[in-house]
Amino acid sequence: MKVKKVLVSQPKPASEKSPYYEIAEKYGVEIEFRPFIKVEGLTAKEFRQSRINLSDFTAVIFTARTAVDHFFRLCEEMRYSVPDTLKYFCTTEAIANYLQKYIVYRKRKIFFVTTGKLDDLLPSLLKHNKERYLYAVSDVHNDAANILDRNNINYTKAVMYRTVSNDFQPGEPFDYDMLLFFSPMGIDSLLKNFPEFHQNDIQIGCFGATTAQAVRNAGLRLDMEAPTQKAPSMTAALDAFLKEHN
Fold this sequence. Notes:
The mean pLDDT is 93. Helix 1 (19-27) runs parallel beside helix 9 (234-245) and helix 7 runs parallel beside helix 8. It contains 9 helices and 11 strands. The protein has helices at 19-27, 44-48, 65-77, 93-98, 118-127, 146-150, 184-193, 209-217, 234-245; strands at 5-8, 30-33, 37-41, 59-62, 87-90, 109-112, 133-138, 155-165, 178-181, 203-207, 224-226. It is of the alpha/beta class. Residues 22-235 form the Tetrapyrrole biosynthesis uroporphyrinogen III synthase domain. InterPro entries: 4pyrrol_syn_uPrphyn_synt_sf, 4pyrrol_synth_uPrphyn_synth.
């Protein structure tokens, strides 16, 4: 079956130069962007239930820009003045630079790695082993913090935001030939929104091994998977798929 309409379960790209637009023009397909999941911040009241006192910490660990946003939002809502002495440890340079939205960057102690891995941040954390770390996370996160436990890092995991299903509205059209997913929660949201979903001729593509497993666990057929050696990105995989099937 020829693919004419593709749903990408991510927000619309900020740039018109996105490879998705090139693919749409190249193969004459319609590509729509609609996240199946969305992020909600915990309210100050909800966060207080965790009995975490922000003033107890001398440093904070960030593994996502979303965590930065919700950390400072909660600080403001709880009327907690972030001290100038607070240290920031980030798993990417982009996250570190993003801190400039909230603080005067050059006047703060900020440490980062470029790999996106908490493991690679460990040497800096160990070097500052007297700090009391706050680790800002979502309710859905991997167990990367195990490395903090194994190395006796003095930290507290603080859930500051959660990932929920971005529900389709009654009457909202769902007439796609292909669906692209980027997380297992996207699959969960699909089945929550459409409990009687039948794949039939709809093609399903995904990014990442855990998402691929979620597709199979749901009893669905996986038609396209990324990354691969030939297709390191979702757009590269989609290009190759449409070239072969359209």
